[in-house]
Predict the structure.
Amino acid sequence: MSSETRPISPNSFATAIEDLPVENLYTKAVEINNSVAHLERSNKTLQEYSDSLKDDESLDAETRQYGDRDCLEAIRENEVVIERQQERVRLLKAEVERRGQRWHEAEPKAKEASNGNSEQPVSSGNGTAAATNTPAPNRLTDDELRRQMEERLAQDGGDDGGMHL
């Protein structure tokens, strides 16, 4: 299915986030960084499994030499997604700074991200703190954000066959 849909382009993503409140930009950055942390953990597990096959004498020589090809392909695909997600965080940062505000580091710390659910407060950029695990009254849900982005892209004529945040 992923071969049939394409992710939103960086330009379309940058356009779609222009009108979002700063709090939503930070929330999206935390969500993206959480996703990246999960992908990195997955890659580590896949790599460990693939490497473990190299010592298995019951397997053919090619598998022992290279490891599990499916795992290695999944790792490469995840690395592409990770880079795309990191680009989106850079775009979120650029949007906050374009508005004349200072970007706080929305990247999870290793220990906080180890369980995949950081409960540390995240600065909203205006001196207040917002918990990352509870929705605030003026925050958009994922569905609302998706709907607004789709409307914005439809206005710009930026239909690129699918939208993936």
Q: What stands out?
A: Residues 110-136 have pLDDT under 50 and may be disordered. The first strand starts at residue 121 and ends at 123. Helices lie at 10-16, 22-52, 61-66, 69-98, 110-113, 142-156. The longest helix spans residues 22-52.
